[in-house]
Design brief:
The chain is an alpha/beta fold. Helices cover 22% and strands 25% of the residues. It has a single domain, classed as 4-Layer Sandwich (Purple Acid Phosphatase, chain A, domain 2). The protein contains eight helices and 14 strands. The chain has a six-stranded mixed β-sheet, with helices on one face. Strands 1-2-3 form a three-stranded parallel β-sheet, with helices on one face. It has a three-stranded antiparallel β-sheet with strand order 12-13-14. Helix 1 runs parallel beside helix 3 (54-62) and helix 2 (40-51) runs parallel beside helix 5 (86-96).
Length: 318
């Protein structure tokens, strides 16, 4: 299960829904607290408040918890590599989420983990520490956010790209790739991989070449939706993987609601969206030895608001 956008000063019953589902793992997808400060004391205080939450502590004690950050737990709205308190914020993040080993010894908070006895690779991307400045849209298109697409700049930075290439060379039946910002939504002018189309193309091509099946999970937007695009033709397709689409499951926010009645347009959206508090779930199952995912969005009372069956294109059951 997974979710994003949790204001530490407000009740967050959606975490109780996740606990009741007894997940094998839970991924916090960013804005896990709202710190918005260059002062390490204030950033630490935001995490301390989350750490005192009964629901958070129960989730921490009952499942494997993983995390990436987004802008507000990083420290500033839409911040990137130029955020002045980056190193201090990273130190606080790694201490709170109990990150050690290689992931804690290098700049950035990216890393990977294995689930389901190693058959599933969870890839945790850092979309903040190395991201180039965003390009302002002038004039700003009606109905879109303030940012334009740019063929310059980076989201992941050179070292993280090199790490990702090595990581995706490791075999896996399924890769779950966690990004704080949306990967597959069409360009809407707010933060997403679509602001750097050359970076998104590189990511999708790299994943297509990696072998096995893959699905993206993301947060940030304060509403839930599922995006889908045709998968690029990768080297592994010639070997008969049969992959047809990539999916991006966006779950946001745990207790931050979208402020409007209709979300921004997304030409890649699978039917439906949900504008209130939610958490997401990927449930793996198999028929005749082939692996599929039931993707769901739950509201904070445990009701199913969105559901999609994702055929993983010939991947075999771990």
């Amino acid at each position: 299960m997974f979710g994003s956008c949790l204001w530490q000063n407000r009740a967050h019953p959606a975490l109780g829904v996740a606990i009741a589902r007894e997940p094998d793992a839970f991924v916090f997808l960013g804005d896990n607290v709202y710190a918005d400060s260059t002062n390490p004391v204030q950033i630490q205080d935001a995490y301390d408040r989350l750490g005192r939450s009964d629901l958070f502590r129960e989730l921490w004690q009952t499942t494997h918890v993983h995390a990436v950050w987004d802008d507000h737990d990083y420290g500033a709205n839409d911040a990137g590599a130029d955020f002045p308190a980056r190193e201090a914020s990273e130190h606080i993040f790694e201490n709170f989420w109990d990150i050690d080993g290689p992931a804690a010894s290098r700049p950035g908070i990216y890393g990977s983990a294995r689930l389901a006895d190693g058959a599933i690779q969870l890839v945790l991307l850092d979309t903040r520490s190395f991201r180039s400045p965003l390009t302002r849209a002038r004039p700003r298109p009606q109905g879109k956010g303030p940012y334009a697409q740019s063929d310059d700049g980076t989201i992941l930075g050179a070292e993280q790209w090199q790490w990702l290439e090595r990581t995706l060379e490791r075999p896996a039946e399924l890769r779950i790739i966690a990004s704080s910002i949306q990967v597959l939504a069409s360009h809407h002018g707010w933060e997403s991989w679509a602001n750097f189309p050359h970076e998104r193309e590189r990511l999708l091509s790299l994943v297509a070449d990696s072998g096995g099946a893959a699905v993206f999970i993301s947060g940030d937007r304060h509403f839930a939706e599922i995006s889908r695009v045709p998968a690029p033709v990768g080297r592994t397709d010639a070997a008969g993987t049969g992959r047809r689409y990539f999916y991006d499951m966006t779950s946001s926010g745990i207790n931050r609601r979208y402020p409007h009645e209709v979300p921004t347009a997304n030409a890649n959206r699978v039917d439906g969206y949900y504008l209130h508090h939610n958490v997401g779930e990927l449930a793996l199952f198999h028929e005749d030895g082939e692996l599929s995912i039931r993707a769901r969005i739950y509201d904070e009372e445990g009701g199913v608001r969105l559901e999609e069956i994702i055929d993983l294109g010939g991947a075999t059951t771990p």
